[in-house]
Amino acid sequence: MPFSGRETAVQLPLIDNDLNYPGIELDLNERRLVQLHGQDPRWMTELEKIETKAQGLRFFDITEMQDLDSLARPRQLRKSSFPSPNSTEQVNFVLETLSTAGPKENLAKFTSFRTRYYRSDTGRQSQQWLLSKISEITAKYASKSLREQISISEFSHSWGQNSLIVSINGSSVDDDSIIIISAHQDSANMWPFLPAPGADDDGSGSVTILESYRALIAADFRPVRTVEFHWYSAEEGGLLGSQAVAKYYAAQSRNVLAMTQLDMTAWVKRGTREEVGIITDFVDPDLTDFNKKLVDTYLDIPYVETECGYACSDHASWAKAGYASSYSQESAFENSNKNIHSGNDRIDISPEFSFDHMLQFSKFVVAFAIELGKWES
């Protein structure tokens, strides 16, 4: 999650632009085109972009994505409707198989990398580990015939840490709709060269959707519509990875019916009610209402409406491309984890960092996939 206007801006350490930082490929003088809310795009150096984040400002880095808005126009004329949940027997069958064991093991490994910063060696290594884990889970839990419907691919980026896309191909020959469930795999400290375990932001979302994927394929889920799981690179750099993927899908005229982002799913602030934060600004209102119904129907905790602002996570890239997008997080925005973007975003902060809370979001993802993807009879 990028810095929000509600966070306190901090003073960055004095940086020597000519220093070399082992394991990090970053030219602080490189010029980037940045789009802030309500302003014309403007060029700034990479260092100025980092300082802009530290000031609590949200933005798209549109250096390579300047035409994303124009690709959206034909799509914005379409209007999708989302029915009330009606697949309770199939959803509940899968919900019973969800566990915290996998997320605990996977997140312990995912946070062991010094940083998952998208321009770092360890950012690339963490992406490769995640790819191997997805492949391992697929080989272990998917039947031989279901594996024939599953594709696992890297979406290449110039900075080295690639986005990951897993597709469970739909059976329908008449309905080319795609359902997307996503998280971002990268992490970032306030200053990119410092450690960033990124346990909550967004390690929690990454392993949350991975557990949902495991449970679905273990149940031999055969969707009518194609269901995809995405792990984006470089969200912290200005939604770079998700913009690239969304642009590619829009240029290919792919029919994305709905996408939902999970960014931070673990934190329950001491003294507050456990709940799901449903983001209501810069999202598709009909899909957001559908998500509320999923929470009411399938989760053990309530939702709360909250806002997070312009370009606050990867769903914004899909909205910009004209697709129906939505976003859920761990709580109301004001109660979310304040340790993010630091070395203190760790799994060992108890009891506020909660794998049981993450499990509620895995339930949400399973419900989203089955209700919108449908299950082949």
From TrEMBL:
All residue ranges annotated as the Peptidase M28 domain in the record: 164-357
A single MF term (Gene Ontology): metal ion binding
Family, per entry: Belongs to the peptidase M28 family. M28E subfamily.
Tagged with keyword Metal-binding: yes
Organism of this sequence: Neolentinus lepideus HHB14362 ss-1
Top-level enzyme category: hydrolase
Alphabetic keyword roster: Aminopeptidase, Hydrolase, Metal-binding, Protease, Signal, Zinc
The enzyme's E.C. designation: 3.4.-.-
Name listed for the protein in its UniProt record: Peptide hydrolase
InterPro entries: M28_fam (IPR045175), Peptidase_M28 (IPR007484)
